[in-house]
Amino acid sequence: MMRVAGSWCAFVAAGVVTFSTTLAVAQPKAGAPQVSPQQLEKAKEHMAAGSAFYNDPSGHKCEEAVREFSKAYEYSGSWRALRAQAICELELERDGAAISHYEEVLKIGGSQIDAADKAQIENDLRALKSAAATFVVTTNKPGAKLVTTRQPSAGFPITNRYDVPAGGVTVTIHPGQYTFSASVDGFPELTWKGEIGAQSRTEKAL
Asked: Residues 6 or more apart from 190 whose CB is under 8 A from it?
């Protein structure tokens, strides 16, 4: 998988490895039920597991890390857990999820986020929004699956998978050169290629 360049890499490397040690002092999101000691311990376990997956010596295992950080956030409501999830989603090029979660981090973290981290999150959020493209898939066939594979100029292809409900789905994706494939039980698989421009909107009917 391609690694995120520039300041994103520095933030990822500096951020995730410290989350498991700072989660205990994070406050839950506003309006959330009080977090019990048992929930906090569960959250810390998932944060530690997520950090281990992310820092695996063989390479970042972001798919696994996202699941663990998501569980940590579910148990704790901590913006730190959500930030870790967003960092991994950024690396996986799940731009829509990363944007949404970074915005939520800023909302629930508030003054708990130190100035340097807040500036980095805001910079990454602006960069994502300035490039992210909209891809709309419409269909009247239930149970459709969409696979997007982007080939960066260097590194391995990056693949993401989406369920397409009847009526369609709108996803936010990274700009670049793509191979798309769509499948529905009982129909031949449809495959096509295309260039997705920054901030563009592309529609495809299945």
From this structure: 181, 182, 183, 206
Residue 122: both structure tokens together? 């805001």
Name residue 45's amino acid. E
Predicted structure pTM score:
0.82
User: Angle at which helices 79-91 and 37-54 pack, to 10 degrees?
Assistant: 20
Hey, how many other C-beta atoms are within 10 angstroms of the C-beta on 162?
Answer: 18
Distances in Å between the Cα of 43 and the Cα atoms of 25, 28, 57, 178, 193 are: 12, 12, 23, 37, 41
Residues 6 or more apart whose Cβ sits within 8 Å of residue 112: 26, 27, 79
For strands 133-138 and 201-205, give the pairing: parallel
Fill in the DSSP letter of residue 78.
Answer: B
Measured in residues, the chain has a length of: 206
Question: Could you report the per-residue pLDDT of 28-43, keeping only the tens digit for each?
Answer: 555 556 888 899 999 9
Residue 189 near residue 181, CB atoms below 8 Å: yes
